[in-house]
Structures are given as structure tokens and as C-alpha cells.
Amino acid sequence: MHHINHQSAAIAFEFRAYRRLFRRPIKTNHGIWKYREGIILKLSDHQGRTGFGEVAPLPWFGTETQSQAIAFCQQMPTRLSVGDNFSILPTLPACQFGFELAYRNLTRDIHCAELDIRHYSALLPAGEAALNAWSPLWAMGHRTFKWKIGVAPVAVELAWLSQLMERLPLGAQLRLDANGGLCEIVAHHWLDRCDRLGRRIEFIEQPLPPNCFDGLTKLARRYQTPIALDESVTALDQLKAHYYRGWRGIYVVKPAILGSADRLRQFCEDCPIDLVVSSVFETDIGRQALIDLAIALQASSSENPRRALGMGTQQWLPNDGLDDPDWEALWQRLR
Ligand SMILES: [Mg+2]
């Protein structure tokens, strides 16, 4: 008789959804973002090992919605096999990332790498509030700051920029993020001003909408201030397409919504790109995956500048236990 040991192959699958209200709403060119919703995945095998993963969708960046991700989790069997090679459609990139992460965490020894705080950029509030908000973040050790632009008239924002640059200590670097919200004329105003600030602006992120490849390329050629693509390259296929079309500026990579982190890593080994690993306000589980990935990517392409991770997001999230590095405790919070 042919015996199959189902017991040894079985992995239990569970998931729990979360919703976190931001301490204050995040204003971007996409609108006002009030809370972060996502899903924690948990795999457990018969050896008592667990693997946690996180699904953190961002629909206005083209991912599945929270309810689509929940529907996907609901149709998954509650017991999986070790050899299960289930495929996840590219239309569910956040689920792709989350399940891959849960499987990886199931079989690896968890060690929580942490970088020095100066390797994390800190997100400033949009608008005038940035003028004072940088100071406690500087005191904590942050040296790279990110400021969302395109939320007020350009003349007003350029005046705030001048004040901010007067206040920021030398040694601070500022990233500007337009979220694709500028028109070409306004983008020229910004870049012209940035060039005159003598490299204190690390880069300007997505000045034009994602469908403006030629416009973005023209800006990149004309100005010294580097341009980073973000909304243009939210999925791995888009990132590859921009690389093959010749984009040699910076790529902002949000692994949690990009799809398979393994395939991203493979691509970066073959085609070293100048990239910034960036958060979409994950819990500690997703956050740790980003740090690990950034360390792995840096190791594989040492010729590129080491850019601060776009991760100084903790101060925007509530004290709800979901930033706990003890993931079992984090999971228990979601009961
Ligand atoms: Mg961005």
C-alpha cells in the first residue's frame, strides 16, 4: 500500500485583517489617506514553526483592494502542503508579496536586522507643518527627510521650501515627492529651484504622471537634481519596462505592492539599478522584510549609492502593538 504522510506535509494557514488609523491623515496628491488596512498571514507546521507574512494593498497604486485580498485569503485552503506551488495572479501583487514572505519566514531563522536610524528617511507632514516637524526627527538621528509637494499652489510651496532649507541643518538631505501631480511648467519651476539649492535635494520623486515617460526623461536630462520614478514603476513588469526603455535615474521600489520580492532580487542582480526601498506603512512584519531586502540588494550591487530607506513612517502610526517585533504577540492583538 502506498502511504502518504499527510501529517508531515500539512501547513496550517490563518489570516487576520487589521485597520490602523493614522495619527493624522496623510495628504498626498492622490487625496487624503486616513487609515491603513492590511492582512497578517500565519503559517504553522507540525514542527511548531511559524511563518508570518503581510498583505498591505495600495489600490490607488494599482494593487488589489483590501476586500479583494481578503476574498483571496478566504478561498485559500486552511491546510496547505509543503510542496504547494500555488500561483497568485499578477493582479494580486500585495498577496504575492505576503504569501512569499510567510513561506520564507516559515523556513528561515528569524534574525531582526536593524539599520542605524540615519539610513531611514523620515516623512514630514505636507505643507507648512514641515517647517517645524523636521526638528524632533533630526534629534532622533534622521538625516534624510521626505516632503510631499503638489498639495498647495507652487509659489506658496516654493516659499515654504526656501524657509525649510534655511532651517534644515547642513548635512540634512531632502527628498521631494510630487506623486505625479505636477504639470510640465510647474515641474520646471521646482527643478530649477532644486538645482540652485546645490545638491541639498537628494531627488524629486515622480514630478509628472506615470504615462509621461518622454517628459520625465527630458526633465532628467535637463536638470542636475536627480529624478526618481515611483508611480511609474509600481509593478515589477513596469520597472523592467522602464529599465529596458533606458531609464537610468532612480527607482522607488515598494516591495509590499510590487509582487514577488524574489523576482525583484533576481532582476536587480542582473540589472543593477539605483533604487530606494520604500514603505507603504506596513506593520513590523512587512517592515522587517523591507530591511532584509534592502540589505540583500545593497550587497548585490555595491556600485550604486546607498540611499536611505523610505521607512521613517512609524511616527504616523498608532501605538496599537502592530509595530511589535514579537510577531506572535502582534498576531494575538488581532483577535
Ligand atoms: Mg512616492
Fold and architecture overview:
- The protein is of the alpha/beta class and about 325 residues long.
- The chain has two domains: about 5-110, Enolase-like, N-terminal domain (Enolase-like, domain 1), CATH 3.30.390.10; about 115-315, Enolase-like C-terminal domain (TIM Barrel, Alpha-Beta Barrel), CATH 3.20.20.
- Helix content is about 35%, strand content about 25%.
- It has twelve helices and twelve strands.
- It has helices spanning about 5-10, 65-75, 95-105, 130-140, 155-165, 185-195, 215-220, 235-245, 255-260, 260-270, 285-300, 325-335; strands at about 10-30, 30-45, 50-55, 80, 120-125, 145-150, 175, 200-205, 225-230, 250-255, 275, 310.
- An eight-stranded parallel β-sheet has the order 11-10-9-8-7-6-5-12. Strands 3-2-1-4 form a four-stranded antiparallel β-sheet.
- α4 links the parallel β5 and β6.
- α10 packs parallel to α11 (about 285-300).
- The chain is globular and about 60 Å long.
- Mean pLDDT is about 90; it is low at about 1-10.
